[in-house]
Amino acid sequence: MTEVKKHFAVIGNPIHHSLSPQIHTMFAKDAGLLMDYKAVLSPLNEFQQTSQTLISEKLSGANVTLPFKKEAYQLANQHSQHAKIAEAVNTLEFKDKEIIGHNTDGIGLVRDLEQNLQIDLKHKKVLLIGAGGAAEGVLYSILEKKPLELTLTNRTIEKSNTIKNKMNAYAKHLNVDLNVIEIKKLQHQYFDVIINATSASLNEADLGLDNKIFHEKCLAYDMMYGKETLFIKQAKSQHAQTSDGLGMLVEQAAEAFYIWHHIKPQTKPIIDFFRNK
Q1: Does the pLDDT of residue 205 top 80, yes or no?
Q2: Residues making up the binding site for NADP(+)
Q3: Domain Shikimate dehydrogenase substrate binding N-terminal: where (predicted)?
Q4: pTM (whole model) above 0.70
Q5: Closest CA to 192 of 147, 154, 152
Q6: Which residues are annotated as part of the binding site?
Q7: 69 in active site
Q8: Catalytic residue selected from 69, 124, 145, 164
Q9: Given a cut of 50, is residue 208 above it in pLDDT?
Q10: Burial bucket for residue 227 (CB in 10 Å: 0-12, 13-18, 19+)
Q11: Which residues in 128-143 are b (16+ Cβ under 10 Å) and which e?
Q12: What are the structural domains of the chain?
């Protein structure tokens, strides 16, 4: 029986920078699957129309990147637990007339930390910087790993408080101490893992972090990838361990690939490939 070629896409604006087509093509080649995967630029106010066009073209699924993850959540008529809690979707499955929304960002982050960087989050003190969609998308996955404490901070503290109020019940259920501290009051706190989920790295903005929060035994993790950010430079200056978000990108893609194909791809060769490029 001839294998049917499946079609997938990533939707965003901008989209030219996306590594997703290359990553998924490499996964498919390793798995011996017949598929294609394209990047689709959607006009900012036409995500719904763009998605419906792809469905009419018989696509089996799509990844969704900035700025459409909230709109993808609205588009889906079924949601995974992670998508429901984040109220954001980065992976869509098109099945008959069903549109199933998933969020693999948090799973990707945690896998990168645990499997690639050998950081066990259980009983650790974790700081999450940011209160936008990126932070919301990973928060529940961090809580699931039962850190001792998860501290939220942001330049506008009200946003952190809003997220805390939304997530408090989950934190209590998992027995995790979830709290909010202003950036300028962090210098006397100890953290094992510091995660930057802000977009400040994109425009080289200074987060206003005190050098004292970084130390040799701490991991500073920036969810952005590519060039070295101010956050990573500051952490290195204080001899902290550092990582960008390339591993997270590949791991969240691997989870999306698993959702679509029920095959778990090998991620380390792909991460190494992009690291050495």
Answers
A1: no
A2: 130-134, 154-159, 223, 245
A3: 10-92
A4: yes
A5: 147
A6: 18-20, 65, 90, 105, 130-134, 154-159, 223, 225, 245, 252
A7: yes
A8: 69
A9: yes
A10: exposed
A11: bbbbebbbbbbbbbbb
A12: 6-103+248-275 (3.40.50.10860), 106-244 (3.40.50.720)
